[in-house]
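Entry 14. Structure prediction run on the chain below.
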Amino acid sequence: MKSLKVALGIATISLLSCGNNDPKKIAVGEQCEHCKMTIENVKYATELVTEKGRIYKFDDIKCMNGFASSNADKVANAKSFVTDYASEKLIPFEKASFIKGGSIKSPMGGNMQAYENKADAEKAKKEFGVE
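Output returned:
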């Protein structure tokens, strides 16, 4: 019976230590992995999640792209997530609609916003003067 408990304990620990590829909510006050500045506006924050579950958080799409370019070995096959500007929910990069320019001012000058809903992006284009 004792060896069964030990085996179950080891199995549980093994399962818990496996990588999880889900994004984790980004909070104000966390540090950007690329520029090392404090994340102050989560509406622009992004995240890379590696196959092993390592999470890299960024204060701007520009920082995420810069980090990925200079750390290709660390983020090979990583999933990219951006924050939906409207809801502050992390969404897959490839499913987002982006707007850039106009009066948008993001933390590191990427000046880009992501939206889960294309209609929200179209509405924001008018609001922020994006052509």
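The longest helix spans residues 2-17.
Filed with the rest of this week's runs.
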